[in-house]
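Try this one yourself first.
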C-alpha cells in the first residue's frame, strides 16, 4: 500500500502551507489607503463641523453649521449644506472629508431607495444605521463621521457613526470638531419629551456655542426637522432667526 506522505509532492505541498495563515483565525482589517501624502492631506477640503441630533416627542431635530475649510485653517466655503435627506423620514449629516461624505450620502440614499423598490416598504432606522456602519467599515469612504436621525414605526432615533464604522444610538449626540462645546449645552438643556420647536432652540444654541470657539465651524446653521410626515431642511445665516 502506498503511503501518500512519502511522495515528493506531498512534502512540497506541506512546506508551502506550513507558514500560511490559519483560515479559522480572525483577520484584522485595515483602513483604505487614501493615496495622499501628509502634505497633500492639509489641502483636502473638510467640513470641520459641528453636527447635532436630538430626539423629541414629535420626531428628531438635526442641525449643522455651514462652513467648509482646508485643514481647519482656511474657509473654503461659507454655505455648505451638511445635512441631506437620504430616506423619506431620515437625514444624514456630513462631518470630515467633503468628497468622502458626499459619496457616502449618495451611496446610502441609493441603497435606501433600492430597498423600498424591492420590498415595497421603507428601511427601518436600525437597518439604515447598520448599513451606514458597514459601508464605512468596508467601503472607500474616507474620513467621515456622520450622524443619522430618523423616524420609523419603532420610534424616533439618533445615531452617531464613527470613522471605523461603529454605530451608537442615543437620545442626543454630536459629531465633528465642535462636539465638546456643543455637548456642554446639550448636557445642560436637553430634556426628554421636548417638542420639535423646543428641540430646535436647544440644538441651535448648541451649534452657536461651538461656532463661537471652534474655528472649523461657522457661517450659519442648517436645521432639519424630521417627523413621520417627512424631512424639512432650512438654512439660516443668522442664529437670531431661530433663537
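Now uncover the answer:
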Amino acid at each position: 500500500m502506498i503511503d501518500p506522505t512519502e511522495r515528493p509532492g506531498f512534502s512540497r505541498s506541506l512546506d508551502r502551507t506550513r507558514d500560511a495563515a490559519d483560515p479559522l483565525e480572525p483577520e484584522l482589517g485595515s483602513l483604505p489607503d487614501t493615496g495622499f501624502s501628509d502634505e497633500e492631506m492639509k489641502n483636502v477640503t473638510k467640513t470641520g463641523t459641528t453636527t447635532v441630533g436630538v430626539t423629541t416627542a414629535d420626531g428628531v431635530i438635526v442641525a449643522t453649521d455651514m462652513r467648509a475649510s482646508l485643514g481647519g485653517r482656511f474657509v473654503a466655503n461659507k454655505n455648505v449644506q451638511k445635512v441631506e435627506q437620504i430616506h423619506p423620514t431620515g437625514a444624514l449629516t456630513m462631518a470630515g472629508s467633503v468628497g468622502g461624505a458626499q459619496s457616502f450620502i449618495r451611496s446610502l440614499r441609493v441603497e435606501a431607495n433600492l430597498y423600498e423598490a424591492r420590498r415595497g416598504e421603507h428601511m427601518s432606522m436600525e437597518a439604515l444605521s447598520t448599513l451606514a456602519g458597514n459601508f464605512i467599515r468596508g467601503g472607500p469612504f474616507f474620513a467621515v463621521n456622520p450622524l443619522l436621525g430618523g423616524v420609523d414605526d419603532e420610534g424616533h432615533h439618533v445615531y452617531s457613526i464613527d470613522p471605523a464604522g461603529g454605530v451608537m444610538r442615543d437620545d442626543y449626540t454630536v459629531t465633528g470638531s465642535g462636539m465638546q462645546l456643543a455637548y456642554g449645552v446639550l448636557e445642560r438643556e436637553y430634556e426628554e419629551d421636548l417638542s420639535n420647536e423646543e428641540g430646535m432652540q436647544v440644538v441651535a444654541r448648541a451649534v452657536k456655542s461651538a461656532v463661537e470657539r471652534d474655528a472649523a465651524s461657522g457661517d450659519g446653521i442648517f436645521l432639519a426637522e424630521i417627523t413621520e410626515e417627512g424631512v424639512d431642511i432650512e438654512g439660516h445665516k443668522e442664529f437670531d432667526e431661530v433663537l
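Discussion: The longest strand covers residues 155-161. The chain has a mean pLDDT of 85.
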